[in-house]
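tmp note - 60S ribosomal protein L36
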Amino acid sequence: TKLFEQCLFTFLKGLFTFEVDEFLKKGRKEYQLTMAPRYELAVGLKKGYRTTKIRWANHLAQKTSKVVKMRPSRLKGLQTKNNKFTRDLVREVCGHAPYEKRAMELLKVSKDKRALKFLKRRLGTHIRAKRKREELSNILTQMRKAAAHK
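out:
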């Protein structure tokens, strides 16, 4: 049993933050076990460097945690209030571009992957294609809701 307890304590020492000698002196019932904070460590049992959680932000936020600004490439084409108003106005006057109409037809018949491939070919990057596909699918759902209300 003594050997078993020693093995158990060495195992527990890896999981919990406490001194084994103090644990033996005070006894099991009197000692309060405290778990080590998991989020401060990279991977495994107490492994790696202490890390802080990284939050992505468009603009600088609170100074309490580490904040990293988004890459400019991710910000390109992002909708702002003015930008959205202008695009909606243009969309109302001009309608959709031919490639958007074709992508919407593909989305109507549940060919999402094909629509993504098509949009990627037309727009150039995977991220822009995904954003456009999401935008067009939202337009389709709005059209369906409008048709249901009539």
